[in-house]
Amino acid sequence: MNDPSRIKRRYRQFADTECKGYSDLYYGLALAVSDDDEVVGFIAEMPEIQPNLFFASIQLLTGPDGMPKTGSELRAFVHRRDREIGEVMRSRRTQTNEVGRCAVLLPALPPGPLALLEVGASAGLCLLLDRFHYELGSASIGETSSPVHLRCASAGPVPVPAALPRVVWRRGLDIDPIDARNDDAVRWLLACVYPDHRERRRRLEAAIGLARAQPPVVDAGDLVDDLPAVLEQVPDDAQLVVFHSAVLTYVKPDRRQAFAAVLAGASRKRNIVWLSNEPPGVVPEVAALAPAQGGLRYLLARTQFTNGQRRDELLAHAHVHGADVAWL
Ligand SMILES: C[S@@+](CC[C@H](N)C(=O)[O-])C[C@H]1O[C@@H](n2cnc3c(N)ncnc32)[C@H](O)[C@@H]1O
């Protein structure tokens, strides 16, 4: 059994750092959990205690509109449906595919034609970044007829591209890829979006629609062990960009180093641009360039690998789901 006081601290921290000012619903619910012995007792019996997993498991059962809105509604729901919530929590892992992050990545891309390789690609939705419409600050990029509209507030000298890049090859690599044509997997992806984030849900549904019509290829594999085999397949006549968001943070520091070492090795044959969009501290060479920031902000960095040598640039601080970007 997990330590109840640790769970209370975790839910309070989740409320303060990930929900405050971003999701009133989850802020209120997470604070309520942090003060509710009965709900905490239920979570303590689970193998994983993550707030996102607990709330997504409930949302899978209720849908976004039926999600409990108050602490007492939540306690009553847990009381009534404890067995079903437990089954979901034991069988699923938190899974997201956040297309909003493409608005942060877009200005960091080099000129095309591009070969895009995303590690930790999930359902590969971010690989479709050239098929979305963007409002980046006051700039409009891409076809307004795209079903996926991304809105990202901006600060600082964002190098907004005049047009979307030409992508001639794209591939994902994920330890546990999601097939956007699998209804059960899609239901879980949607359940992991906070219920009060209606625009995020709409754009995710729209991106899933694009992926269902033309599924991006996402290979099953590890971002270190299976990367060399994928790199072998990249066409020569395009600029290779390897990118990821919210991925390296889930692997151990020695694996992050091993990942960078694979890219450095491969750059003896071709130049590689590596874009990382991760929490502070995940890429040490980037963390060293970054002034401290409050709150939960990602660091967007671009590393050019040439002939085994790297050159790192810290480009921006970004909202975790791409709601805003502050260029440096
Ligand atoms: C939080 S999700 C982010 C998904 C996507 N990058 C996005 O921004 O929406 C993290 C993804 O990394 C994948 N992942 C975690 N460890 C991995 C590894 N060692 N190799 C490849 N993929 C991994 C997970 O399966 C998951 O799809």
Mean pLDDT: 95
Low-pLDDT stretches are none
Strand % is 15-25%
Record the strand order, biggest sheet. 3-2-4-11-10-9-8-7-1-5-6
Distinct ligands, ions and cofactors found in the model? S-adenosylmethionine
Largest sheet report: 11 strands, mixed
In sequence order, what are the helices and strands, one letter per element?
HHHHHHEEEEEHHEHEHEHEEE
Q: How far is the N terminus from the C terminus?
A: 45 Å
Give a count of the beta strands, DSSP E runs of length 2 or more: 11
> Helicity, in percent?
25-40%
Name the assembly state: single chain
Described by the principal axes of the CA atoms, the overall outline is globular
Number of helices: 11
Structural class: alpha/beta
Radius of gyration over alpha carbons?
20 Å
